[in-house]
Each structure stands twice: as C-alpha cells, then as structure tokens.
Write a structure and sequence with these properties.
Oligomer: single chain
Strand order of the largest sheet: 4-5-7-10-9-8-11-12-6-13
Order of helices and strands: HHEEEEEEEEEEEEE
Number of strands: 13
Strand content: 35-45%
CATH topology of one domain: Immunoglobulin-like
CATH class of one domain: Mainly Beta
Helix content: 10-25%
Number of helices: 2
Largest sheet: 10 strands, mixed
Radius of gyration: 31 Å
Length: 215
C-alpha cells in the first residue's frame, strides 16, 4: 500500500469515527431533553399546588386539578391541633346537620360563606334561614341557605349560604343560627342549630379563621 493510500484510509476511518461520535451525541442529547419526567400523583392540596395547578384565594385555600377534575382543600390547623373539616352537629330537635370547612369556636369575617348538608325536610321550597347574632341575641345579619341539586329526596342535600355583615369588633362573641324553615308557624315544627363564633372586624373576603380560645 502506498503512503498516500495509507493516509487516505486513516483519514476515512477518522471521519467515520467522528461522524459516528456526532450521531451518538445528537441521539443522546435528544433522548435526554425529550425524556418525560414521571407524572406526579395529585392527591392532596400540597401535591396539587406543587404540580402547578391554580390555587384559589379562599380560606382555606383550594387547588383544582384539571386532569382529575378534583378540587383539594388546604388543611388548616390551629395550636391545639383542631382543623377545618366537615363536622356533624345535632340540632335542638335531634337532626344531624353537616357543615363543611368548619371548626368549633372559630373566628369569622364578612363575607361568611358556609356550605354543608341538611335533610331536605328542613327547608321550604329548597331554602331555610341563616342568622348571625351577637352574644346578646341581637341580629347582625340574616340570609337564606339554598339547597343544591335534587332537593325532592329523603337523603341529606347540599346547601350553601353567604352572610355579609358590619359593625362587629374583633374578638366579640356571636352565634351562627341555622333555622329550619317552618311555614306552618307551629311551635312543634320549630328546629334550629346554634354554633358559637368569634368575629373579625375586617372585610377580608371569604375569611373564616380558627380561634385559639374556647367559648
């Protein structure tokens, strides 16, 4: 083999090695950047927020995951470990009533948004009164809780209510009253649920804060 042929062979081998190296590099580069990271499981408020989903500025905060079409609520705890959750209470007539995102002895501010579940016979034409009173029994606000969905059933039905109020002082005690709608006016058909609260005087926007003291 002549010297020129030898150098030509070496040059061709070198070019092939370089081209193969470039091909491997480009392929690995594409694989690295196009590789999808494992999809995170969204099963709580924290994991929903970490996934970059929108967080609503309610209290407690809520995060909606569009992939599962689920909404997760932030768990808020106070110093004594009490947290906002769905709580069940019995009315004066022994009827079980659910209130969502609630805790015993909480602080509330205007507008106060409340949701829960109640037997449909507690309402009249899908509504019942909701009243906010001072500790002396003076009416501070009055509204109407509206039943949601099919209320012509014997099963507990979701309800929602909003109360706006002014003229309260932070720390002042009050009472939230859920009142059975009684169009008959007969005393034996009356029923209600009374829950102690404390007020915040700031118009904070869907505020509902836990109290660290016991009423």
């Amino acid at each position: 083999m002549s010297r020129n042929s030898k150098w030509l062979t070496i040059s061709l081998v070198a070019i092939i090695v370089i081209l193969l190296g470039l091909l491997v590099y480009v392929s690995w580069d594409k694989l690295w950047f196009n590789q999808k990271s494992p999809e995170k499981v969204v099963n709580s408020f924290e994991s929903c927020a970490e996934a970059g989903n929108p967080v609503m500025g309610s209290y407690p905060r809520q995060c909606h995951d569009p992939k599962s079409n689920q909404t997760f609520t932030e768990v808020i705890k106070e110093d004594n470990g009490q947290s906002l959750t769905t709580r069940r209470y019995q009315s004066s007539g022994g009827v079980e009533i659910e209130i969502n995102n609630w805790a015993d002895n909480i602080k509330v501010a205007s507008p106060l948004e409340i949701t829960g579940r109640v037997p449909s016979n507690w309402s009249f034409e899908a509504s019942f009164p909701v009243i906010l009173e001072s500790s002396s029994g003076e009416q501070i606000a009055r509204g109407v809780a509206q039943l949601q969905g099919d209320w012509m059933t014997e099963q507990p039905v979701p309800w929602t209510a909003t109360l706006e109020f002014t003229g309260v002082t932070t720390g002042e005690k009050g009472v939230l009253v859920l009142q059975k709608d009684n169009p008959s006016g007969l005393a034996e058909n009356d029923d209600s649920l009374r829950l102690n609260v404390r007020f915040l005087d700031a118009y904070s926007g869907n505020a509902l804060l836990l109290s660290n003291s016991v009423i």
